Amino acid sequence: MPLSLLKVAFAIKKMSMKKIFSILGICITLIVVLGCKPNNAETKQLECTRKIPIEVSLPTDLATELNSFIVSDFKDAKGMIKVFDMETGKLKYQLAPKGEAKDEVLEASNFELLKDNEETWLYVYDLGKGKLLKYDFGNLANNNSPTQIDKLKSNDRYYCINNIGKGYAALGVFENHKFDLLNDSLKKYSTYGSYLPNKEKVSNKMIDAMANFGRSVVSSDKKILVNFSFAAGVLRFYDIKDRALIHRKDAVVKPMNFKVKNDDYQLQDGLGFLDASISDNYVYALYSGEKENFNAPMPTASYVYKYDYQGNLKDVYHLDKAAFTLAVKNDDSQLFTIVDDPNSKIFVYNLK
Question: Where do runs of H (alpha helix) occur along the chain?
Fold first, then answer.
C-alpha cells in the first residue's frame, strides 16, 4: 500500500532538505483520488470525441503546442519529456534523459512553454540538480539538446518554478512565505505570499506549509499566475506586475480544512485541485473533492472548473472518463486529458 501524500509531507520536518525534495518529487505518484461531483454546482456533460493512444509509463503533466502533445513521463529514464504528434499519437521526440551529464536530468519536476517573438521555448526544471534546461521547441528536429542551462545561485531547492516574464516564482518548503522570487539568473531577490487559511488555526508552520503543497501555472502573456494546493478546493489568482505577484482573488470550491494531530494532519473534506491549464482567455482546473483511495493506481478526477482571468467561475464540466492531468487549446476550442486507463490515452473534448 503506497504512503499518502499527507503522511509523507509531515514526516518531512524530521528529514534533511535532500530527502525532503526527493520525497516531494514523487509526491504526485503517492496521492490517489477519484472524481466526485461538486456540491450545488451546475455542470455540463463532456463526451470524448476522439481517443489518441500514447506510449507513456507514468504521465504527470500535459501541454499542447505546434500540433504536438508534450507529456512529462516521470518514470522513463530514456527521456522524461516526450513530444507526440497530435493527430497520430506517434512519439516524435524524447528529451531530458536521466543521468549526470550536462544535458541530462535527475528529476524533471515541471516544464513550461514560453514564446519569445516567433520562437517557442520549452523550459524543463530539474529538481535533482537545481537547474533549468532550455530547448528550442520549434527546432527539435535539428537539435533536441538544450541550448542553455541556468543553475540556481543558492542552496535553495524548489519543487516548481514558473517564469513570470522577468524572473521566476518558485515554490518550496517555506515556513513564513509562499514564493521565492528569482531574477533571470535564478538568484533570489524577494519573497511573497501566505498560505491558505485553514478552518482550524494552525500553530505549526511546517504543517501549514505542507498542507499547501501544490503547483502553479502562468498565462502565456505573463499577466496572471494561478496556484493550487492538492489538499484544498481553492485556486489562488495572482496578477503579475514588474517582477512581482499581487494576490487578486481566491476562487473557492471547498476551503482548506484539516485537523492537526501531533506532527501529522488529517483532511476533513478530501483533496482539491489536481491540475490546471490556462488558455488565452480562461483558466481550467481539474477538481477532485474525494478522499484518498489507496487501491487506485493514479490520482484522478472527473470535474473541470472554468474561470476567467479575474477568478470568476464560468462553467463546470463533467468528464465522461476520470483523468489525472489536462491541457487546453489557446483558443478554447478543445480540452485534452490523459485518462485513468491501463493503456494510456489522450481524450479529446470539443468545447465549441
Answer: 5-9, 17-26, 205-211
